[in-house]
Design brief:
The protein has 1 helix and 9 strands. The protein has 105 residues and is mostly beta strands. The chain is globular, with a radius of gyration of 13 Å.
């Protein structure tokens, strides 16, 4: 599975994250539980993520995204999980997927 993702903390948190910028040191990863299924760095403001198939059938229903912001030196987690679908694509360059992220505490 592949995904084209745009992270926009400034749009989600206009007061707290008005100074947000994507950094070349940022990372975005897909997880099924604690199993990492793919990691990527930003390219031209987008994250192009290859998501490997999870180990078990139960894990296919709950792929979550975790975003490391070098700017804020914090980890953010997507509020909603999505299902893994083999050979599918989530988002496009023209319409990237924009996850709702919350600070991981």
């Amino acid at each position: 599975m592949t995904a084209v993702i745009r992270v926009d903390l400034a749009a989600q948190y206009p007061t707290q994250a008005a100074d947000f910028t994507i950094s070349e040191d940022d990372l975005l990863a897909a997880f099924a539980g604690n199993q990492c299924l793919g990691v990527t760095e930003p390219q031209d403001g987008l994250f192009y993520l290859f998501i490997a198939g999870p180990d078990t059938e139960e894990q296919t229903t709950g792929i979550t995204l975790r975003y490391w912001s070098a700017h804020y030196t914090n980890l953010f987690v997507a509020e909603n999980a999505f299902p893994f679908v083999n050979d599918d694509q989530k988002g496009t360059i023209a319409e990237p997927f924009v996850p709702v992220l919350k600070l991981d505490r």
